[in-house]
Every structure is written in structure tokens, then in C-alpha cells.
Amino acid sequence: MDNTERIKHIVKMEHILNSATNAVSEFEKLLPDIKDLLAYYGSREWFNDLDADSKGELPSDLRRGVLSEDAVYDLLINIKELQKELKKL
After folding, report:
1. Considering only CA atoms, which of 11, 32, 30, 33 is closest in space to residue 22?
2. What is the dihedral sign for C-alpha 36, 40, 42, 44?
3. In this predicted structure, what is the pLDDT of residue 53?
4. Is the distance from CB of 50 to CB of 67 less than 8 angstroms?
5. Helix, strand, coil in percent for the chain, rounding step 5
6. d(Cα 78, Cα 89) in Å, to the nearest integer?
7. How far apart are CA 52 and CA 58, in angstroms?
8. Closest listed residue to residue 71, CA positions, set 39, 26, 37
9. Residue 50 in contact with residue 71, Cβ under 8 Å?
10. 40 burial type by CB count under 10 A (0-12 exposed, 13-18 middle, 19+ buried)
11. What's the pLDDT at 45?
């Protein structure tokens, strides 16, 4: 490997390191919010919100992915898959 290739490789690895470090930091910051989301999902409040939505009591332009069963479940599955991959490392 010549010096130019070596430098490009080091720059690439540095970018990966910085990106991964930032991603881990951001995920750690989100953990309390994710815990709140999981507590909300399937709770009495969630069912009340779902009921209000089905009755048309919520604004039509309100984003409501959190009221779908799939969105939060898919997030949980993705987190579990990420956990498995991290264990492999």
C-alpha cells in the first residue's frame, strides 16, 4: 500500500470511528425517550388515544405512527436485532 492509499484508508477509518461514536452517543441520549415510548405503547393512555383517533377526534394532519401497532413493534424488533449484532462484535 502506498502512502496515498494509506492516508485515504486512515481518513476512511477515522470517518467510520467518528460516525459510529456519534451514533452510539445519540442512541444513548434516546434511551430514556425510548423507555417512555415503550411504557406508552399498549398502555391505557395509548388505547384512549387510539380510540380518540378512530372517533375522528384528532386533527387529520397529526402524524400518528405511534398509534399503529406495527411502528413501535418494528422499532423493538430493530433494537433487538441491533443488540444481537452488537453481541457478535
Report:
1. 30
2. positive
3. 97
4. yes
5. 80, 0, 20
6. 17
7. 7
8. 37
9. no
10. middle
11. 98
Instruction: Give the span between the Cα atoms of 49 and 61, in whole angstroms.
Output: 15
One-letter amino acid for residue 53 of the chain: D
Inter-axis angle of helices 69-88 and 3-40, to 10 degrees? 140
Return the pLDDT at 15.
98
CA 83 to chain CA centroid, Å, is 12
27: its cell numbers: 442512541
- Please state the length of the chain: 89
The position carrying cell 453481541 is 87
Residue numbers in the chain where pLDDT is lower than 70: none
